[in-house]
Every structure is written in structure tokens, then in C-alpha cells.
Design a protein that fits this description.
Number of domains: 1
Order of helices and strands: HHEEEEH
Strand order of the largest sheet: 1-2-3-4
Radius of gyration: 12 Å
Structural class: alpha+beta
Mean pLDDT: 93
Low-confidence stretches: none
Number of strands: 4
Largest sheet: 4 strands, antiparallel
Strand content: 35-45%
Number of helices: 3
Length: 85
């Protein structure tokens, strides 16, 4: 586990190994994060294999996804995910 993954696990209690499951979620929502102009970042809200709705921020590097952070979704983000907002 890399340094960034360890820090994320400590801060948010979400393992990147669990977070990658959101990319297999057919109901996941993905938006482009336009606030970061130095690199193209995307944000995906989706469910992991443990049934948690997560927010995963990532970028593409050399045709691979590089996760920047992963955390539990807020109530508002969960509502967006299930289509209530």
C-alpha cells in the first residue's frame, strides 16, 4: 500500500482497494472536477463491495486510474446517487 493510500485509510477509513469497486457500479455518477486545472480530475459517486456509497476522486495516468482520495459520501451526495436530488 502506497503512502497516499495509507493516509487516505487513516483519514477517511476507506481503503483504495475497496474504493475501486465504484468503477464497476452501473449506477455510479461521474463528473469532471473543473476546479483543478493542473490535471484532469474526475469524481465518481458509487457503491463499493461493502455497500457503502463512496466519493472517489481520481485522474488518468498512462491509461491507468490513479485514485487521489476516497471517502464516504455525504447525505447530499448519497441523495444524488439514489436520484433524490
Amino acid at each position: 500500500m502506497g503512502l497516499k493510500a495509507r493516509r487516505n485509510l487513516r483519514k477517511h477509513n476507506i481503503d483504495f482497494a475497496d474504493a475501486v469497486a465504484v468503477f464497476s457500479d452501473d449506477l455510479a455518477l461521474t463528473i469532471v472536477d473543473e476546479e483543478h486545472t493542473s490535471e484532469d480530475r474526475s469524481i465518481t459517486i458509487g457503491m463499493d463491495g461493502l455497500g457503502r456509497v463512496l466519493v472517489v476522486v481520481y485522474t488518468w495516468r498512462r491509461s491507468r486510474i490513479r485514485i487521489i482520495s476516497a471517502r464516504r459520501a455525504t447525505r447530499r451526495e448519497q441523495a444524488e446517487y439514489i436520484g433524490e436530488e
